[in-house]
Write a structure and sequence with these properties.
The protein has about 240 residues and is of the alpha/beta class. It has five helices and 18 strands. It binds coenzyme A (COA).
């Protein structure tokens, strides 16, 4: 920035008008980040992102595109969610350095370059976009990458370091590059009951009163860590 402009900016900042403009900018920032409902680290960058309430966005996360994060979800340190359209459900937890991408460079034209040196970045318009949808209560391990067009079902787990190239069904654990199904978390009838319960539609406060229900031990499939098999899953019913 030229010295004269810097001096003008300093003079403006010192004046009462500068104070007012500064306050308005600060209010705008708070408004953009809806900080009264969500917690967003100062170093996080949010463009075109809506946060559903009581979300956490950790330091150095970059969320840019047409991004909707459901209530109570936690976006980890250094996550990159770059759209296109990316939808994340409620009560999701992403470990550090997760990448979710809804765009690809266009491989079918003469160049894949989209940078500013050519026509001020006009080739960015050539990028292709496929929406990514992440269900509710999804846990994504450290450094995993979800590629464009992938849907991850509710209750799914993505192992650390995975590259997810295909849809992941609800309550399935996947890992590896490319990610492959390790196992279903529960037998199909349990999965059905959990999906039917739609517990994630409740508020955190309501669910806090149902800790016992949330802690219900269910039989894990193909796992040595099997726990009691006979617990009923009671749907979370709407309060009248
Ligand atoms: C995916 C995960 C949840 C699986 O846990 P699990 O169900 O207890 O699985 P197991 O440890 O029984 O492993 C089952 C098999 O999958 C393999 N596996 C487990 N995690 C893997 C991963 N991330 N990538 C590749 N393979 C993996 C194991 O080596 C094992 O293979 P084998 O059957 O050939 O021996 C866990 O390994 C993981 O990646 N957790 C993420 C931890 C993390 O990132 N924490 C920070 C964020 S909060």
């Amino acid at each position: 920035m030229p010295a004269a402009l810097k001096a003008l900016r300093r003079a403006l900042a010192a004046s009462p008008l500068g104070g007012l403009v500064g306050s308005l900018v600060a209010i705008r920032r708070i408004w953009d980040r809806r900080l009264w409902q969500n917690t967003v680290a100062r170093s996080a960058v949010l463009n075109g992102t809506s946060l559903g309430g009581e979300c956490y966005v950790c330091s150095d996360a970059v969320l840019s595109g047409d991004i909707a994060i459901g209530a109570y979800s936690l976006i980890g340190v250094g996550n990159h969610l770059i759209g296109g359209r990316i939808t994340v459900g409620r009560f999701c937890q992403f470990g550090p350095h997760v990448g979710i991408y809804a765009t690809n460079h266009n491989l079918g034209i003469a160049t894949i370059y989209t940078g500013p040196a050519i026509a001020a970045g006009a080739l960015r318009k050539e990028m292709t976009s496929e929406p990514v949808e992440i269900g509710h209560d999804v846990w994504i391990g450290h450094g995993a990458i979800v590629l464009p067009g992938v849907n991850v079902g509710t209750g799914a787990v993505i192992g650390a370091g995975s590259v997810v190239t295909k849809d992941v069904p609800p309550y399935v654990i996947v890992a590896g590059n490319p990610a492959r199904e390790l196992k279903a978390r529960f037998e199909p009838s349990r999965v059905e009951a959990l999906l039917e319960s739609r517990w994630w539609e409740r508020s955190g406060a309501e669910l806090s009163e149902r800790l016992d229900w949330l802690r219900t031990p269910l039989t894990r499939i193909s796992s040595a860590k099997t726990v009691t098999p006979q617990t009923e899953i009671v749907p979370v019913r709407e309060k009248r």
